[in-house]
Design goal:
single chain, 376 residues, seven-stranded parallel β-sheet, six-stranded parallel β-sheet, 15 helices, 43% helix, 15% strand
């Protein structure tokens, strides 16, 4: 009987973004699949019952040993390491952070992206150093590495010299509860809640330079000549180096037309995406890009980038443009706003594309790797 330890600390975030949502949804699907011959331990920094994601983790918690080990700072390297000293599992899986300094001989870790290496100017210097050190450590010491996409796998090989045979591409799933909202009252209510005065283009994600929002704002400004009543909604929490974005909005005189409502309640996401004329996700670099699939799930035409994992993720269900070409972004917005046949085709292809992604499939792949590491 092997003991499987899983760092579940990121699954209890009160405002989950990409990697936290990955941890929550993957663990929800994975734990019930793990062999009953194994003992599964979930390590939490905060009590899971006190977090919004608790209802999603109930089944996983019933099949595992939850261990809440609070600690104010450096939880992974001090508190989780100490737990490894005292009660070391046979295999440790870290889905959304860094392996602790003390760990079992067999370990599995997910590396989500290398955006800090590809676009270093989009990250503060301290953040770049931390991400580089933590990723270098993960790649060096992990028995096996998961990558969210082939693009991320190739970047790990190129930048850290990891042997490709130690890396498995496991595409994450998406929130299958998302669906097109067609109820006019629900669509009107979400527009009123976020004070959106009319038709809009939507971006969802962390507000930071890597998301390429300054060029999106400039492309939107060019589009207003042809669609003068259009609005742009930039939804998501503020990230590092985000001051340039409101400054550019003010400089272009767009404070009334570009809305930055902050973090979007997950309960509002389906209606907000469904009500948009276009979902614009022109990121410079993504290890995966969950918002692209969320747009497809809600039946909203998707404009995204030709770079990194985004063509891999979006498939045929998106209009792809060079994210560093503002004119191409503006032209892409106009095409999606004005070409009804293109819109219809991309939405249909988006629905077909979603069949490639599910948390159950991802969890099955991860389970097989954990079983191989655990041995007979």
């Amino acid at each position: 009987m092997a003991v499987i330890g899983i760092d579940a600390s990121r699954a209890t975030s009160t405002a989950p973004t990409g990697t936290e949502a990955y941890s929550l949804h993957l663990l929800r699907a994975l734990v019930p699949l793990l062999s009953p011959e194994h003992v599964t331990r979930l390590y939490f920094r905060d009590p899971p019952e006190a977090t919004p994601g608790h209802s999603l983790l109930v089944d996983a918690l019933s099949r595992a040993e939850p261990r809440v080990i609070p600690f104010p700072r450096l939880w992974t390297h001090i508190r989780l390491s100490w737990e490894m000293v005292r009660h070391q599992p046979d295999v440790l899986f870290v889905p959304a952070h860094v392996l602790p300094l003390v760990r079992p001989r067999r370990s599995l870790v997910t590396v989500h992206d290398l955006g800090y290496r590809i676009f270093p100017a989009a990250h503060p210097a301290s953040q770049r150093r931390y991400l580089d050190l933590s990723t270098r450590w993960n790649v060096k010491v992990a028995s096996h590495i998961l990558a969210d996409s082939a693009a991320t796998r190739d970047a790990i090989v190129a930048h850290y010299g990891a042997p490709e045979e130690r890396i498995t591409v496991v595409h994450p799933g998406y929130d299958s509860d998302l669906h097109p909202v067609q109820d006019s009252q629900a669509l009107t209510a979400v527009r009123a809640h976020y004070r959106i005065p009319g038709d809009y283009v939507l971006f969802l994600g962390r507000i930071q330079p890597r998301k390429n929002l300054v060029r999106l704002i400039e492309a939107f400004a060019a589009t207003l000549a042809h669609h003068p009543t259009l609005n742009l909604v930039l939804g998501g929490p503020a990230g590092w180096l985000s001051d340039e974005i409101p400054a550019r909005i003010r400089a272009l005189g767009l404070s009334e037309r570009v809305l930055v409502p902050g973090y979007i309640d997950p309960a509002d996401k389906a209606a907000l995406i469904s009500g948009a004329l276009v979902f614009a996700y022109p990121s410079l670099y993504e290890g995966f890009g969950f918002p692209a699939l969320e747009a497809q799930a809600c039946g909203t035409p998707l404009l995204t980038s030709t770079t990194s994992s985004l063509p891999e993720v979006a498939g045929q269900g998106a209009l792809l443009v060079d994210p560093q070409d503002t004119a191409a972004l503006a032209q892409g917005l106009r095409r999606l706003l004005e070409d009804s046949e293109l819109r219809r085709r991309l939405v249909a292809c988006g629905y077909e594309n979603l069949a490639r992604f599910s948390w159950q499939r991802a969890a099955t792949q991860v389970r097989d790797i954990i079983d191989a590491l655990a041995g007979p």
